[in-house]
């Protein structure tokens, strides 16, 4: 982007913030008019309008508008309204969108290191562990190095909502061994695609809205997306009845909030703070909503839709870890990816030691009060 283009957009943004570029004296003389003319920001997600994640994005919009006292208004759009689900990053960078809501793995095709910010190797930490790494363990600085220095993008990104580990997915027939996976046409994204290829599957990387139609046409015959609510929203239960929970392929993902760099540079400091810290606020709200909705929808899938819910076998989980071991040396041939992985390993070694040593056996307590429910 040229400096003249940046200056032109910067001037436009300032005029917009002042109510459409009226003369400065006139604007200052009419603060009541200013208060009635909020800055309108365009935000698009990577999710269909019917998906729970679109609702989670709306939770962010609601909080930002409330905290700004009406000075900010966000026009929230679903995937495809301006660009496709995998093009959100480009659209924010180019100024077609002010804010994007996606996951880094959706731009994995631009740089494989994107996958390390949510769908990389699992060293023993959860999604909460890795989001904590982003904010407290140096991850944000590495993310900025990737997006701004290496890729030359004019964006500022933040993570929210550490997601529960993603299920291994949906299968037409029961699956319990690695041998049974051979030749499966399977949907996933990012480095998980390389991981599943190591297990003998043929992988298609598709946005969420294309999964069930691809299953119906036979383009794929097994898939994962993320969680029971989204899977129910997509109609996964209509094309498969075997649902395997627990997997190492995407066990540490979070949402990504993308902000256009010029927008943030010109934003009033208090409004900029609201946009950024609103990400932290909605992370808590999304986590609470997921606990309620994911659990209720999993129960519905079992009791109303006739889905057989099982845990992925220990054989397959062990094979996934071994597959990560094969992939990591290749990833570390890239100096930046090695720097990220070294940082993540050091963080997990330190903080997860405390977490695991300190955590009581919650399974023991659950089975005591709700005997016979778990299928382990």
From TrEMBL:
Binding site for substrate: 166, 187, 224, 250
Pfam families from the UniProt entry: DctP
Entry keyword annotation includes Signal: yes
Gene Ontology cellular component list: periplasmic space; tripartite ATP-independent periplasmic transporter complex
Keywords: Metal-binding, Periplasm, Receptor, Signal
Subcellular location per the Swiss-Prot or TrEMBL entry: Periplasm
GO annotation terms (biological process): transmembrane transport
GO MF annotation: an example: metal ion binding
Residues engaged in binding Na(+): 225
InterPro entries: DctP_fam, SBP_TakP-like, TAT_signal, TAT_signal_bac_arc, TRAP_DctP_sf
Domain of life: Bacteria
Name of protein: TRAP transporter solute receptor, DctP family
Species of the source: Jannaschia rubra
